Amino acid sequence: MTVIALASDHAGVDLKSFLADELKARGLDVLDLGTNGPASVDYPDYGYALAAAVKDGRAERGVAICGSGIGISIALNRDPAIRAALCHNGLLARLSRQHNDANVLVLGARMIGLEVARDCLAAFLDTPYEGGRHAGRVSKLSCPPPAGGPAGSSC
């Protein structure tokens, strides 16, 4: 069964719970990496935990949430195995899958409402990666350039 990892800071707890229910309604397994309450926490900790879950195969994809989505997105994208896309609408979520093979959807809980989040999640889950002309570019995202060289040349 497909496992989707969820992680949020304190600002994203309610949206995370809503999206967990959406995922379960689709018959997907949810790996909830926290946090689960309103006490202030540090979003990088949850971003790193989600990145590890996707990287080590405990989850096929992930959804990360913080207040704006920016901080947790930065934390996630520090791992070369992660392609986290901060999305504000379904079109961006669809394009992040089609063109960038995003493996983590990032949402800003204070930026979007529940219906937009639901649309983003549906597009993220239902859209396949196109590959083709995008494949070379996407491979460069996981293979940083050596000093002074072109991306992808050291992999």
UniProtKB/TrEMBL annotation:
Provide this UniProt record's keywords sorted from A to Z. Answer: Isomerase
Q: List the molecular function annotations (GO) for this entry.
A: ribose-5-phosphate isomerase activity
According to its UniProt record, which residues of this chain constitute the active site? C66, H99
Where D-ribulose 5-phosphate binds, per the record, is at D9, H10, G67, S68, G69, I70, G71, N100, R110, R133, R137
The GO biological-process annotations, alphabetized, read as: D-allose catabolic process; pentose-phosphate shunt, non-oxidative branch
InterPro entries reported for this sequence: RpiB (IPR004785), RpiB_LacA_LacB (IPR003500), RpiB_LacA_LacB_sf (IPR036569)
Family, as annotated: Belongs to the LacAB/RpiB family.
Q: Which PANTHER family match?
A: DNA DAMAGE-REPAIR_TOLERATION PROTEIN DRT102 (PTHR30345:SF0), RIBOSE-5-PHOSPHATE ISOMERASE B (PTHR30345)
This chain belongs to which protein, by name?
A: Ribose 5-phosphate isomerase B
What gene is this protein a product of?
Answer: rpiB
